[in-house]
Amino acid sequence: TLRSCIALLTASLALSACDAAAPPDPIIFQVVRTLPHDTTAYTQGLLFHDGLLYESTGRYGESTVRTVDPVDGAVVRSVPLDSALFGEGLARVGDRLIQLTWKEGTARVLDLATLDSIGTFTYGGEGWGLCHDGTGLWMSDGTSRLTRRDAETFAVQQTLDVTVDGVGVYSLTELECVAGTVWANVYQRNEIVRIDPATGAVTGVLDASGLTRDAGRSGDLEAVLNGIAWNPQTRTFFVTGKWWSTMYEIAIDGM
To answer: Of the residues 109, 180, 196, 237, which has the maximum number of CB atoms within 10 A of its CB?
Structure first.
């Protein structure tokens, strides 16, 4: 008999996963706690390191890179970008941060301690999400493709098509690398997908629509779910959205 189908919605396409491959697992989570989130932050990138959250925010003339206290959500330090730059994804490589920009083809290299700019990389196409898997960087560009880059030179090492049942999952945005997997927001959707970087297959889907409703942002197509940060000490995620007043710390079953 046919297995029942599940639908994974993307920004432009409804995908069905049926007989040809096992459907992605539903990812079950519980909210551990909530903390305030700056409502002026158009969140583009989020990561946790050594007791602090690092956040990249976007929009021309409003983009920043900042540190945030995960205890109370207070912004500890915020450094603005040049008004010609639209901040996007953020990753940590050792004592450096790498911050993408949207259409400018520039990745900013920042000192982790001061957030000062110490260099740049250049790339073609758009920049959306970025995460470091321990050896290389995974980058999204709003399509269904991820690009793996050298963490020292930003040279392209590999491209990967992200799929459900062989069909591309488009509008991949903010990324988080966790224990050999890549987690991604899907722009303007309430899903976070877990990706196998060996194959590009989506192996799990987290339905965060309840968080979007709780944050009061269900009807706003700009104030969307975006931002995933993994805390390896507590084995929990921080998740939030653009202009949201709340950040959620969640625990995933089995992690």
So the answer is: 237
CB 111 within 8 A of CB 96: yes
Q: Which whole-number Å values give the CA distances from 75 to 38, 68, 106, 110, 224, in the listed order?
A: 8, 4, 25, 18, 21
CA nearest to 210, candidates 227, 229, 182, 190: 190
Residue 251 to residue 255: CA distance in whole angstroms: 8
Beta carbons within 8 Å of 206's beta carbon, 6+ residues apart: 26, 27, 29, 191, 192, 193, 194, 252
Provide φ and ψ at 212, rounded to 5°. Answer: -60, -40
Query: pTM for the complete prediction?
Result: 0.91
Measured between alpha carbons, how far is 255 from 252 in angstroms, rounded to an integer?
6
| Residue 205 · residue 27 · CB < 8 Å | yes
What tens-digit pLDDT sequence spans the chain (255 residues)? 222 333 333 333 333 333 356 789 999 999 999 999 999 999 999 999 999 999 999 999 999 999 999 999 999 999 999 999 999 999 999 999 999 999 999 999 999 999 999 999 999 999 999 999 999 999 999 999 999 999 999 999 999 999 999 999 999 999 999 999 999 999 999 999 999 999 999 999 999 999 999 998 877 789 999 999 999 999 999 999 999 999 999 999 888
- Asked whether 237 and 249 are in contact (CB, 8 A), the reply is yes
Rounded CA separation 250/214 (Å): 14
